[in-house]
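Lab channel / #folding
Pinned by the channel admin:
"Please post every new chain as: sequence first, then the structure tokens as a reply. Keep commentary short and put observations after the output so the thread stays searchable."

First post following the new format, from NK:
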Amino acid sequence: MTQTATAPPLAAGEYVLEPSHTQVGFLARHLMVSKVRGNFEKFEGKITVGETLAVSGVEVTIDVASLNSRDEKRDTHLRSAEFFDVEKYPTMTFGSTAVTAAAGGHFAVTGDLTVRDQTHPVTLDVEYLGAEKTPWGTAVAVVSGSAEIDREQWGLTWNVALESGGVLVSKKIQLEIEAEIVPAPAAA
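Reply from TO:
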């Protein structure tokens, strides 16, 4: 997320996620074969780009109740105590602990993901896609990130066994982030 030989430069400074052009999503297998996607509609994030990757980082807070998988019954179940328990744990957070260059212009952003008050390390594969200026003069940078996690590490263990020997909901969940980031507003 700073200058490298394989990615365009992004100036050092503080940035934030631009919510109307950012998607924080997930993908799970249903019945072991089909893919179900969802996203979180409310979140905020701060990206610090330092002079080096060693002093760069990311902090994100997600409103778990804002999840949307396009099925009201499923979303109500996901918000319940059997999954996210949003009454008790309304947010999940990610705070990076290291940002390192990876192959092909990608970055490994390692950090602590906290869900249901349980914290475990996760490494996101992040690709810096470039920067552009909008027709209204706003500077925008774009990143894409993903990681595969085992939801059971965070106590998300609800499931139903299938006659075939599989389960209703996969243990492995793919996290998917497509983000536009903009310079943080100046402090008042």
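NK: Residues 93 and 114 are 5 Å apart (CA to CA).
TO: also worth noting, The radius of gyration is 18 Å.
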